[in-house]
Amino acid sequence: MTSSRFISLKEALSHSPLEVEKTNKKVSEYYGINVFNDRAMREYLPDDVYKSISENIERSEQIEKKVADQVASAMRAWAISKGATHYTHWFLPLNGATAEKHDAFFHPSSDNRNIEQFDGSKLVQQEPDASSLPSGGLRNTFEARGYSAWDPSSPAFIMDSTLCIPTIFVSYTGDALDFKTPLIKSLSFIDNIATDVCQLFDRSITRVIATLGWEQEYFLVDESLYYMRPDLVMTGRTLTGHAPAKGQQLEDHYFGAIAPRVKAFMTEFEIEAWKLGIPVKTRHNEVAPNQFELAPVYEEANIAIDHNQLVMVVMEKIARKHKFRILFHEKPFAGVNGSGKHNNWSLATNTGKNLLSPGHTPKTNLLFLTFFVNFIKSVYNHSDLLRGAIASAGNDHRLGANEAPPAIISIFIGTQLTKVLDELERKVKDRKMTPDEKTELKLNIGKIPQIILDNTDRNRTSPIAFTGNKFEFRAVGSSANCGPAMIVLNSILAQQLKEFKSTLDKAMEKGEDKDEAIFKILRNYIKESRPILFEGNNYSDEWVKEASKRGLSNFKNTPEALSSYVSDSTVKLFEENNIFSRKELEARWEIRHENYAKVIQIESRVLGDLAGNHIIPTAIRYQNILVDNVKGLKEILTSEQFEEQAELQKYIIGKISEHTTEIRKGVKEMIEKRKIANSFEEADKRSFHYCNEVKPYLESIRYHVDKLELLVDDEMWTLPKYRELLFIK
Ligand code: ADP
Ligand code: MG
Question: What is the pTM of this model?
């Protein structure tokens, strides 16, 4: 970077703590020290209370007032011993962030004996008001109260001297206003039904837990450069910027050595994460320059989601300390790979079994196949809802952009399992099967474990891939809360298992053999669900055509994808099983349409400002220099010489006029389109208008800005360029 217009990168570097304080401690010595975990509970609670609360948590039961009081006072003592001064209910509202409202433990009392207070009632429930958080019309102002209620299944933790208590957040009327409430309901739904199904195979299975291992991708940019990009500051992504001469084509960043500055940042946030009991495990450079990934060991889904939200907050904080800004946006740089958040999802039992992991015997493998095939069927039935769950303005840029799965939902299972399903479909008969036929089938099913071990093919282009013992849902956006995706996966499989169980019960009532009945049902499911299975290249144009032939949806943008949120099948699924009421679904649908419209509105305004305040003035200033130059040349040169020597300048002058005129025209039209969009009362009409009428201008205006970036003197260009933003030294 030669230009003096920027605070020099050197200066930024000198502020950046390249070295992290050495703790000299083993991670195991400080892992979880900031969490009110099992160890802390054991230490701070009387034995009987500890036993009782552990059992409550294990069985997801209500907690008695007396127990809550004792837990609260233990929590307080523990937190104060660690220097905490405040406490807060910590929840995940529908704006996608985390919310906290801090209260001090300290409370001056009437008799002048100041004491530290925090009892069971404050632990269990609070009324943070928080009426400005999105509710989708679920809260009228006259009953704007929102309540947060303790979620004992996710442990409390200390951050910045504040005891944070994970809670759900609901309205006065009991409608969910957060991601956690429906998640917990969906977890209990899948627990109940999956346990029923497991009991058919193994009586010792009494509990099923959904597990989630997320992989978080993100970008880092230098803080001083970040502040010079109003678009990054305001929207989290660059709205202009020509692709650098060198991008990711050399593939030299992926898994490469991590730059020392970045390494220092990673080391420090990992220590903080470990203290918070977040089991972060792997870190590496991603495909794009300045792009990185972090993944923990998987956990129970509710805790994994809390940890993901928490880790994002911690990363943001530590990034600032290291003079970076962290970008969780799905597509911060056009033409450069975007960021996702792969959700690795599976089901574990109380007996330590992974239900999506093939076993060693025909019996355990029939259990595996039951869950495997039901999962495929459930995705086939509700693929539109899954697409809706991961829809956002940011993710729209990423899905189908040749680096991320397309907007078409399909499942990859690998050639070996495809063969297993093919065989099941072929060999199961409608008529009563002979003992030999059944034995053969079971023998083949018993062979699945070896097959999986040999199965090294991996399809990185699929939105949902089976990876040996779990499904990896890759379409989730990097900035998203995993909640919506997890709620849908849990619920659709549970619903499907319910149907499976009732079909099976009926067959068995008619005297059919259990295994044979299961074979038949699974065979039918395989037949019906075929269209959702795809082994080929999801990035290809052929797949788009093929998918359309198969009748699979391809919702290209968020407003379209959101229709599935309020479709009949979605409402039926969620209402029937008490996860969401229609009203709650409509609220979520509305919030997401509103959010979409706001994002495009802000991007459009920021681009208009950039054009008016940065791009056009700079281009004109440079053009003036050229004009002066041309005038001067005309004075001193003969007309032939002038024709020859001023040709380039005149060409650039013309080009600058052409592009600035187009930019001005585009911005004016875009503002008119925004006015129309804003005039719509209904959230969906507004978001559709923003999508179809306003958003295209972001592209067309940008085109001309990026052309100007190549024409104007580098020294004058006010915005840091991609080549400067993207290569941390
Ligand atoms: P990659 O997809 O990058 O090749 P891995 O296959 O090693 O990586 O694992 C990716 C993620 O899958 C990790 O975050 C891990 O915690 C998670 N994972 C592994 N087993 C399970 C499981 N049973 N349930 C949920 N997540 C799991
Ligand atoms: Mg992965």
Answer: 0.94
